[in-house]
User: Fold this.
Amino acid sequence: MQTCPSFRLILISILLAGQVRGEEQRPRAPKALQTDLATLRRIQTDVQKLLPQVRPALVAIQTGGGTASGVIISADGLLLTAAHVPGGPGKDMRVILEDGSVTTAKSLGLDKTTDAALAQLKQREKPWPFVKLSREVIQAQPGEWCFALGHPGGFDKSRGPVLRVGKIIKQTANSLHTDCVLMGGDSGGPLFNFTGEVIGIHSQIWENRDQNVHVSMAPFLRSWEAMQKSQVIKVWGVGAGGYLGVATVMSDDVELEVADVIDDSPAQKAGVRAGDVILSVNDDAMTDQQQFTATVRSKAAGDTLKIRLRSGGKERELAVKLAQKPQEDSE
Assistant:
């Protein structure tokens, strides 16, 4: 890809602006992540190399609600986008490729809570252009460089896709926050790492320049089979951990108490009852709801928790094997 001097100046300006803001928010960033002119030149070179490779997989999407973006991740035409773009499974979408040609896609399943969705492009004789997605979700750490592509305002062949380069600011169980500025029409478009893999899908535009939210690959990888079956998932947005099946409250005695136990849940099967006071989990004393929730979410389906309870003045200890979070409202 040939690059004019003005493009270089614009890119360096974007990188410098993002670095200044990023340093303000991360004053203790590792020295290796600090940016100098040599790093900016390397980032520019990497973007120039990667852009022609990944751009053909970017698509513009037109639905009854407006315009959005998406990215093709397989030769047979599987498409990632945001759940709020189709709104539900079985929806027909008009898809525009990089060269301006038009095809159609049908939405498959989606995760309404995390805003992840899968769609299938119409079959054709030759393979679709596609990019790989990252399966190492944990590697998308704050301070890492990334770049966003999308079609803000809709498809414009004379302009082409819009590129924004920046850094990851925050990682949560299901999302990434970056300083790659998003605009209307970007929803569903890809966020890339600097190996050309998709690490996120554009989801939300918040008020500030550095509050751009992308669905990470965690919900996609976790619910892949369900979405391929056109199911709608509503309960996996609470975190990536295993499923216990209890609701808790702080009692009048400032103790962590089980308020409710979900039928057929791991907690119920192990013998946890409403009214039990949770004393400890894996020998760590539990003092509030946030600590308990964080402890459960840090474990995966199949892990066993050792929970110490008190009820009626008597203490007991249970071993509870966590399960996969159930699906709701499958369609």
User: Anything to note?
Assistant: The helical segments are 5-25, 37-54, 217-222, 224-228, 266-270, 289-297. The first strand starts at residue 58 and ends at 63. The CA atoms of residues 283 and 306 lie 7 Å apart. Confidence is low (pLDDT under 50) at residues 1-33.
